[in-house]
Amino acid sequence: MTDTRTVKSVCMDADEIERSLTRIAHQILEANHGASNIALVGILTRGDLLAHRLASKIKQIEGTDVPLGALDISFYRDDFATHLSPEVHSTDIRFDIDGLTVVLVDDVLFTGRTIRAALDALSDFGRPSCVQLAVLVDRGHRELPIRADFVGKNVPSSSHENVRLFLEEVDGVSAVEVLEMAPGDRAGSAPLGAEQPQEKEA
Amino acid sequence: MAFNHKHLINISDYSAEDITRILDTAASFRAVNERRIKKVPTLKGFTVVNMFNEPSTRTRSSFELAEKRLSCDTLNFGGSSTSTVKGESLRDTVQTLCSYKIDAIVVRDKHAGAPRKVADVSGVSVICAGDGKHQHPTQALLDLYTIRERFGRIEGLRVGIVGDIGHSRVCGSLIPALKIMGAHVTVIAPPTLMPAAPEILGADEITCDLDAALPELDVVYMLRIQRERLEGAPYPSLREYNLLFGLTEEREKLMRPEAIVCHPGPVNRGVELDDYMCDHPQRSVILDQVYSGVLVRMAVLYLLLGGTDNGVDA
């Protein structure tokens, strides 16, 4: 689908992603006065990996294992009637979220519709005392009144572009790339393992 | 991977990839069904008609539950309460229903081919819930799901289907579904309960000796003996049937240690299964099949009612 895409710029490399996540981990702890009442829930298919990294950073800083979950929002999307049924992955939240501060973790914040769906999905699991949002990249173009509490990097982008995160765990290389969209492409997360980020261009 | 089907009428229209996609999606719905709130808003605003022109308890109730857990609006329709008894044709009935702006029809009918006819005249998605002695594809899918849950695979398993092969629409979908997924299928029945030309079923082996076949099987799939059909005397007595083709405590000794027992329900206890086998804590997966029915039907509705744009949105 995106074979014809061209990389316009690499806006974060692996080191920058790591530094951003370290800072976000500190910010989460600072805002919540420690790790005692927080849980991390990553939105599939890359937010869960970022949440995993954040959890290990929090463990390093505070020595605490925070509850870690993964959320698939396919069943909560608002565009079901117009798109082919998206391939679903398994939600995995094995703890009671009632009363916790749940930090939702996603890769790229764009229209806000994914986050709206995630909030709906989360409310079917219980009633957290508070929900916060951490994203690696905020690229603007919001269509809903949603903002992130913790942002790795703001990346101004045009609507003809796609901003994608690639992570070593599934893609072999970690990077955030701004891509020119080919006709017919839709913005959004790259399918898992379906494509490799291109090498940096001169 | 695209799932480009509008209807589920004949399981043979589906590839191994399509079936795997349905089973994987059903597994995701399992997580939904095990939460306190067993409902997702996915099909909010969709209307599904359950048109059951033949008695059904579990298929009908599990379709209805599947629809409700996907937030569909449902309309239950059929049987003696409808205009068909006043002489309205199937075509007129369906076109009337479609005027209500519905999105899908689930069809159970005593006539083979009725779901295809409904699809031809309706323009909406049609799901076959059993037509005559022809097809019952969601039953086959829930059986595959149950078997895959237990063994982790379907390919290479040896499945024996025992009983009233000739009158069974369960067979009509299950045999092709198992073959598509790479299982080895043996049908086991007295000659009088076999179809006239059993080779067209597509099974790998055909036999009337249950005791000889049993030690090879991973899955023993018992069909219901339809007492009402015994009047034509395909069999001398239920007792004799039980003696030769019933799965009993005695016969269990011939089964492989890990072999399981399936049955589409309702069970005639003491005929095709005795109480011991029916309630066997390790071998009997009959209640798992019932549960899988909801998951698989949720998956089918989810995949069939999705839109046509092959997009992945943020």
TrEMBL record, chain A:
State the top-level EC class. Answer: transferase
Q: Which processes are annotated in GO (biological process)? A: regulation of DNA-templated transcription
For the motif PRPP-binding, what are the positions?
102-114
Classification via Pfam families: Pribosyltran
Q: Which domain of life is it from?
A: Bacteria
Keyword field: Glycosyltransferase, Transcription, Transcription regulation, Transferase
Q: Name one GO molecular function term.
A: uracil phosphoribosyltransferase activity
Please name the InterPro entries in this protein's record.
PRTase-like, PRTase_dom, PyrR, PyrR_bifunctional
Q: Where is the Phosphoribosyltransferase domain?
A: 15-152
Record keywords: Secreted included? Answer: no
Q: Which reaction does it catalyse?
A: UMP + diphosphate = 5-phospho-alpha-D-ribose 1-diphosphate + uracil
- EC id: 2.4.2.9
Please report which protein family the annotation says this sequence is part of.
Belongs to the purine/pyrimidine phosphoribosyltransferase family. PyrR subfamily.
Role: Regulates the transcription of the pyrimidine nucleotide (pyr) operon in response to exogenous pyrimidines.
Q: What is this protein called?
A: Bifunctional protein PyrR
Q: Please report the organism this UniProt entry assigns to the protein.
A: Ellagibacter isourolithinifaciens
Quote the gene name from the UniProt entry.
pyrR
From TrEMBL, chain B:
Keywords, comma-separated and alphabetical: Pyrimidine biosynthesis, Transferase
Q: Which organism is it from?
A: Ellagibacter isourolithinifaciens
From the UniProt record, give the pathway where this protein acts: Pyrimidine metabolism; UMP biosynthesis via de novo pathway; (S)-dihydroorotate from bicarbonate: step 2/3
Which residues belong to any copy of the Aspartate/ornithine carbamoyltransferase Asp/Orn-binding domain? 155-304
Q: Which reaction does it catalyse?
A: carbamoyl phosphate + L-aspartate = N-carbamoyl-L-aspartate + phosphate + H(+)
Q: Write down the SUPFAM superfamilies for this protein, in alphabetical order.
A: Aspartate/ornithine carbamoyltransferase (SSF53671)
User: GO biological process: any one?
Assistant: amino acid metabolic process
* EC number, as in UniProt: 2.1.3.2
Q: What class of enzyme is it?
A: transferase
InterPro entries hit by this protein = Asp/Orn_carbamoyltranf_P-bd, Asp/Orn_carbamoylTrfase, Asp/Orn_carbamoylTrfase_sf, Asp_carbamoyltransf, Asp_carbamoyltransf_Asp/Orn-bd
- PANTHER family assigned to the protein according to its UniProt record, in alphabetical order: ASPARTATE CARBAMOYLTRANSFERASE, ORNITHINE CARBAMOYLTRANSFERASE, MITOCHONDRIAL
One Pfam match, given by its short name, reads OTCace_N
Q: Per the record's keyword annotation, is DNA repair included, yes or no? A: no
- Subunit field text: Heterododecamer (2C3:3R2) of six catalytic PyrB chains organized as two trimers (C3), and six regulatory PyrI chains organized as three dimers (R2).
According to the entry, every stretch annotated as the Aspartate/ornithine carbamoyltransferase carbamoyl-P binding domain falls at 6-149
Q: Name one GO cellular component term.
A: cytosol
Function according to Swiss-Prot or TrEMBL: Catalyzes the condensation of carbamoyl phosphate and aspartate to form carbamoyl aspartate and inorganic phosphate, the committed step in the de novo pyrimidine nucleotide biosynthesis pathway.
Q: What is the protein's name according to its record?
A: Aspartate carbamoyltransferase
Keyword hit for Ligase: no
